[in-house]
Amino acid sequence: MANYYVNSSSTGTGDGTTTATTGVNAAFKTIAEVNAATFAAGDSILFNRGQTWREQLVPDSGSVSGHITYGAYGLGNKPLLLGSVTKNLTGDWTDQTGNLWKTATNSFLIDVGNLIFNNEASCGIKQMSATPTLDTQGDFWYDFDNNSITMYSVGNPATFYTNIECALRQNAVELGNGQDYVILDGLDIRYAGSHAVGCIHNDNIIIRNNHISFIGGGDAGNNYSYRYGNGIEFAEGATNCLAEKNVIDNCFDTTTTSQGGGANHIASNVIFRNNICSNSEMLFEYWQKGTGANVDSVYFENNTCINAGSGWGHNQRPDSQGRSLALYASEITPTNIYVRNNIFYGSTDYVVFIQDATAMAGVTVDYNCYYPTSGNIFEWDWSSYTFTNYKIATSQDAHSISADPLFISTSDFHLQSGSPAINAGVTIATVTDDYDGVSRTNNTYDIGAYEMADIKFFIGVSP
Length: 463
Hints:
The chain is mostly beta strands and about 475 residues long. The protein folds into three domains: about 1-65; about 85-165; about 170-463. The chain is built from four helices and 38 strands. The strands form five sheets. Strands 1-2-4-16-19-22-25-28-31-34 form a ten-stranded parallel sheet, with no helix packed on it. A ten-stranded parallel sheet has the order 3-5-17-20-23-26-29-32-35-38, with no helix packed on it. Strands 15-18-21-24-27-30-33-36-37 form a nine-stranded mixed sheet, covered by helices on one side. Strand 1, helix 1 and strand 2 form a beta-alpha-beta unit. The longest helix is centred in the C-terminal third of the chain and has 8 residues, at about 385-395.
């Protein structure tokens, strides 16, 4: 078991075994160096807090002897892993007349999923067409023939905007090669044009304490059809995978998902707990199909989910959905799928969307708190239902409530003392604490990512 360090101020000539920035034992400088290295079970690769890298991380596999951890060291903000490049220089853009500005041919060798302007103040509007019409500030288009983007801008984009992040269509953290026994802990992952963390056929992956935001938009087929964009995806037979205590915001598609469409894949023991999920088209999506496939034991529990359909991509989707909880399945007979103790607050479409009876096989949905701020509440088998009629039709959510959970504020999702979500959950043996690490085991469980005991921290009283 050894620690390795990554510091962007390093000379990049060392073996990464110390935090020094010079010498034979100096920290790694780049993620490319990390990806090229071989690590052993139990090793930790630690990124210096307060620094930024613009490279894709491809973790190494651990083993049953121990995980390989990718985390942080030092003081300050979480290490920032960006899946983008900037185009902030006036020379990056060539005037095409008519307020159209183009980057150089082959300036992007892969699709650009999104443009993030002025440190997340706004985003571009991507035109998904081989013959686009660009006529509004921020409209842009990726040209697959010339590997460039064209944007509509009144004046040079680098003058109109102070910062332009171009999100490349790739996963920020690539676990799609079947890596196993990996931990991601304490990272800030942003601006990936595909998924933040893409896991396919993985075993024993732990994703905790990370901040994930502004994800997706990349063209999935290079044909202007549909677009990527998940925060944490456990797919195609992922087993023994855990996502906990993450903040996931502004994903083009969904913040968290257990999904798969391949034949004969086996997914089991996939857990999402104590996450804060917000401002994305969907907040949890369970989607499985495939002849011969099987799913057993997927848990989405004690998460706080806010404002489905309120993210950057909603108004530019051809299939705007705005669903907090979306359940789809076919061709399989899953078992032990649990959605419990979650707050689902706000949606532009439906708080809950359930495709049909096939999506409910083996599924238990209960002890949740639902509160729509607009749109409808429930859709079941393509029909709208009131809360009461939905419970009758589906035989689900017998102990759930439909009420305002009463957050402290629009940015603080702890519960006020009068919240109906307090003591309204069910005891879950695997969820022993909350987002802040406060024990749940001495209390009747609250619904959501926070126990009411957390309020004591705000008034200076020990719990």
